[in-house]
Write a structure and sequence with these properties.
The structure is a single chain. The protein has a single domain (about 5-300), classed as Aldolase class I (TIM Barrel, Alpha-Beta Barrel). It is about 40% helix and about 15% strand. The chain has helices at about 10-15, 25-35, 60-65, 80-90, 105-110, 115-130, 155-165, 185-195, 215-225, 250-260, 270-285, 290-295; strands at about 5-10, 40-45, 75-80, 95-100, 135-140, 170-175, 200-205, 230. It has an eight-stranded parallel β-sheet. The longest helix is centred in the middle third of the chain and has 17 residues, at about 115-130.
């Protein structure tokens, strides 16, 4: 039987947060409904940060109130601190994703704090989420490079991952926030973290295609044993606090890669391509993904999902 690859769909959060066009709550809910219908089962649906900092996420509670609830669908809420966690819990998220930065420059500009203060806060939030018996992950941003500090020491990333593992996270995601990673770095860093934290914690990759290396990095992560990858329908997204941090890898392009390699995802490629077309209409611009332009190969009846 083909091996399972889990794709975390991030277009409703990371995808929309950097867009100039602010989608209505109804459009966001429609996006999520379409993703669920396409077979997506883990969705980063909302971000519980200060609305003045990320206006696109100001209606997160309203979105969570309206999304379709199913036992086989998990909605992830992103939080930065205990205040965000309290909001996420009240909104009824199924999972919590805590964020920590691996570089001081980004920590200051993204969270107005230091790396040490942020990971200490994250450890506290992780403990609170675990007490509520809700799955919790951490995303370590700028794991491969920082727009302000440049190169990031891999040992810092490994150390942050080790602290998160000791705090009790279920999953550790490495974020290539500005799309500077190359496959050799991806392999080395995921291997080093696996050696440090063992097999009890899932590893996840979050790649941006800013410099056209995102899919090569996803492949490298797969080769390193990672079986959870973030992606965004249409390839939209980016960080509003990182200059030139353009879109995430596109879900439909990643699905093509994964299905042709023989992985099972449970997600319908053509349906996700239609979701990307919906997003292009709502955002009033083309999306970066290529599958919608070129189409799949071979025809759908010969593909694997």
């Amino acid at each position: 039987m083909p091996e399972q690859l889990s794709i975390v769909e991030v277009s409703p959060r990371d995808g929309l947060q950097n867009e100039k066009t602010l989608l209505s709550t109804g459009a966001k809910v429609s996006l999520i409904e379409q993703l669920v219908d396409a077979g997506v089962r883990r969705i980063e649906a909302a971000s519980f940060v200060h609305p003045k900092l990320v206006p696109a996420m100001a209606d997160s509670e309203a979105v969570m109130e309206a999304v379709p609830r199913r036992d086989d669908v998990s909605y992830i809420g992103l939080v930065l601190n205990s205040r965000g966690w309290a909001r996420a819990q009240a909104a009824g998220v199924d999972e919590v994703n805590v964020v920590a930065s691996a570089s001081e420059g980004f920590a200051q500009r993204n969270q107005n704090s230091s790396v040490e203060a942020i990971i200490s806060e994250a450890e506290q939030v992780i403990a609170e989420v675990r007490q509520a018996a809700i799955p919790v992950s951490i995303t370590i941003t700028t794991s491969f490079g920082c727009p302000f500090d440049g190169e990031v020491d891999p040992e810092v990333v490994v150390g942050l991952a080790a602290r998160a593992a000791r705090a009790g996270v279920d999953e550790i995601a490495l974020g290539d926030t500005i799309g500077v990673a190359v496959p050799t770095e991806v392999t080395r860093l995921f291997t080093a973290i696996r050696d440090e934290v063992g097999d009890g914690v899932r590893l996840r990759g979050h790649f941006h295609n800013t410099r056209n290396t995102g899919y090569a990095n996803a492949y490298a992560a797969l080769q390193a044993g990672v079986r959870v990858l973030d992606a965004s329908a249409g390839g939209i997204g980016g960080c509003p606090f990182a200059p030139a941090a353009t879109g995430n890898i596109a879900t439909e392009d990643l699905l093509y890669l994964a299905h042709r390699m023989g992985y099972r995802t449970g997600i319908d490629l053509e349906a996700v391509t239609s979701v990307a077309a919906f997003l292009a209409g709502e955002l009033q611009h083309d999306t970066p993904a290529l599958l919608g332009k070129a189409g799949g190969f071979p025809p759908r009846e010969g593909s694997t999902s």
